[in-house]
Amino acid sequence: MDWTSIIAIYVLFWVLSAFIILPIGIRNHSETGTELVKGQADGAPVNFKPGRILRNTTLLATGAFLLFYFNYTQQWITVDDIDLFDSRGKLDQR
């Protein structure tokens, strides 16, 4: 696998992980009982911590990417393992 492919796949894992991590632990004003600032949206987060989100996103993305990469190099799960309908066999018969 080329290093450019590694970077591109890691970025995809990182973005997916960000969408998983973002809503975890976020509270709005109605949940915490604090006052809204004039012009503030009702659902605006009170305790948004970008450093924590970046750290957790990077940890999740790195773990998921390492599992992907080791599976790619060691072939733990292959296409034949998840081909439930024998579609590769049907393609070979053509």
Order of helices and strands: HHHHH
- The total number of structural domains is 1
Counted by DSSP, the helix tally is 5
Alpha-carbon Rg, integer: 21 Å
Largest sheet: none
What characteristic shape results from the CA principal axes?
elongated
Report how far the terminal alpha carbons are from each other: 30 Å
Helix content: 55-70%
Helix vs. strand class: mainly alpha
- Mean pLDDT rating: 91
**Strand content of the residues, in percent?**
under 5%
Give me the count of strands.
0
Uncertain runs are none
Topology:
Blueprint: H1 3-21, H2 29-32, H3 50-74, H4 79-82, H5 87-93
Describe the structure.
The structure is a single chain. The chain has 94 residues and is mainly α. Helix content is 63%, strand content 0%. The protein has 5 helices and no strands. The chain is elongated and about 70 Å long. It starts with a helix and ends with a helix.
Features:
94 residues; mainly alpha; 63% helix
Explain briefly what this protein structure is:
This protein has helices spanning 3-21, 29-32, 50-74, 79-82, 87-93.
